[in-house]
Amino acid sequence: MIILVDMDNTLADFDAAFLSLWQKTYPDEFFIPLDKRRGFHLAEDYPDHLLDKIQKICDGKNFVKNLPPISGGIEAVRELLDAGHDVRFCSSHFREYKNCITEKYQWIEKHFGKEAVDRIIMTRDKTLVRGDLLIDDKPKISGLATPTWEHILYDRPHNRQITDKRRLAWDNWRDIIFA
Ligand SMILES: [Mg+2]
Q: Looking at the structure, do residues 40 and 124 belong to the same domain, yes or no?
């Protein structure tokens, strides 16, 4: 199988890293606890007057590079590769791409080794990428093409309202992928 795996909030804990840096940088500022996140983008949950500050944190140097892995994800991808599946890291760059693109490559190299960098597919339109499965926390993935893949939702607090897709977390992935 060709299995496309998203990075932010699927393999890398973007939300946890953001919140921790946010609270360190602005200890007295409003914040939303991780389990109360409801929108896919932070901008949907936070008030407008904070959005510039939020953007600055996410686009900052070393933010993406230092994202902590979500527990079990690295091991799951390794196991899928060992089993002969073709796993590709299918990720979208931020609009402010300068740090983000390089650091996403560094993140993959750090956690999977140099050769795994060849498995990165960076795109803003995942419907144009062929595959059997796409594991991604984004509730709705749209684009130019009709996808060849089945979208399996990576379970996060922000997407719990979606009920029409299979849902996976790194502690139950075998049951879902091989169901
Ligand atoms: Mg994501």
A: no
Q: Tens place of pLDDT for every residue, the chain, 179 residues?
A: 999 999 999 999 999 999 999 999 999 999 999 999 999 999 999 999 999 999 999 999 999 999 999 999 999 999 999 999 999 999 999 999 999 999 999 999 999 999 999 999 999 999 999 999 999 999 999 999 999 999 999 999 999 999 999 999 999 999 999 88
pTM here is 0.96
CATH number of the CATH domain containing 154: 3.40.50.1000
Catalytic residues: 6, 8
Report the alpha-carbon angle 82-84-87, nearest 5: 85
Cα–ligand 1 centroid distance for 155 (angstroms): 10
Considering its fold, how many domains does the chain have in total? 2
State how far the Cα of 55 lies from the Cα of 142, in Å rounded to an integer. Answer: 23
The rounded Å distance from CA 49 to ligand 1 centre is 24
CA of 44 to the centre of ligand 1 (A): 15
- Measured CA to CA, the distance from residue 152 to residue 167 in angstroms comes to 6
